[in-house]
Design a protein that fits this description.
The protein is α+β, with helices and mostly antiparallel strands. The chain is built from 7 helices and 7 strands. Strand 2 (140-147) and strand 3 (151-155) form a beta hairpin.
């Protein structure tokens, strides 16, 4: 005859064992489903994404990032489907709510980072500039040394490395003088109104031909571009190959060469602004007035 204690133990065991077995089977079903779904997703989806982007000529950085993001999406989808197969409906709903809240919070916290990331994708794909190009934007400029998905590193002519967020470059008007095989350099030179324009133009062109890297075609020129308040302005124009010459250095050499060349011309000078006063000035005769003697008698 069984005692009450023995009966309760038998009932507890008969109730617990099926529950444990059911939980173990459900967990095993979830794990197996996740492994199968995730493995198939990585094998099929990631391969399709990688080959499709590579076939279209996307940059390696974009392809690598797209594959990583796709891998995360595949993992999330595999978890959701595995939970559905295992019968974790309540857990799946809670997971979806939590995931949405996290995505919203992360989106607000990293909106600048996401903007730079998206801008980096467009820069790498559209290629408004590449590594080694000389670019100018917002009164800044330099040589592009590296392009990442988040930032672009630019080396200034002062040998300083500037890290620029890609969103700043995407939202600015970027000038790329080295996009073509020739770039024009110009500088304004002023001569006096009484000076010989033809002789000054000839001196500027002769000085241009003495500079290394100046192209013969298009030929250097020095047209009259302005009649200033105290000078006739001739704009010296030369062309160089930006892949062989540094524009700023060539411009400095051009200005110095023209200055030295014009100094050799006795009848050509560099006028400076002057002010002419007209009218008349009168000076009244000054008379010395006697002063009172304050000394005692």
């Amino acid at each position: 005859m069984h005692t009450p204690l023995q009966t309760m133990a038998a009932l507890d065991t008969s109730a617990i064992v099926p529950a444990v077995v059911d939980a173990a089977v459900t967990a095993l079903l979830f794990v197996v489903s996740f492994v199968v779904l995730y493995g198939l997703g990585k094998l099929v989806v990631l391969r399709i994404v990688r080959e499709s982007l590579q076939r279209r000529g996307f940059e390696r950085a974009i392809v690598r990032t797209a594959v990583r993001v796709t891998g995360i999406v595949v993992a999330v989808v595999a978890v959701a489907l595995a939970a559905t197969i295992a019968g974790f409906g309540v857990v799946l709903s809670a997971f979806a709510i939590l995931g949405g809240a996290l995505a919203l919070a992360i989106g607000f916290a990293t909106q600048d980072l996401i903007a730079n990331f998206v801008a980096g994708i467009f820069i790498l794909q559209d290629k408004p500039f590449t590594i080694g190009d000389w670019i100018k934007w917002d009164d800044e400029g330099g040589i592009v040394r590296d392009i990442d998905l988040r930032v672009t590193k630019v080396e200034t002519f002062d040998n300083e490395l500037v890290t620029v967020p890609n969103a700043d470059l995407a939202n600015a008007a970027v000038t790329n003088p080295t996009a073509n095989d020739r770039v024009r350099i110009g500088y304004d030179f002023g001569i006096g109104y009484g000076d010989d324009i033809d002789r000054a133009r000839e001196a500027i062109i002769d000085a241009a031909h003495e500079i290394d890297g100046v192209l013969d075609e298009p030929a250097p020129a020095a047209p009259v571009t302005d009649l200033g308040g105290s000078a006739v302005v001739l704009t010296g124009r030369i062309w160089i190959d930006p892949s062989d010459q540094v524009p700023n250095a060539t411009k400095a050499a051009f200005v110095e060469a023209v200055k030295k060349r014009l100094d050799e011309e006795d009848d050509i000078d560099f006028p400076y602004p002057t002010t002419e006063l007209t009218g008349s000035v009168t000076v009244d005769e000054w008379e010395e007035k006697p002063t009172l003697d304050s000394s005692p008698p």
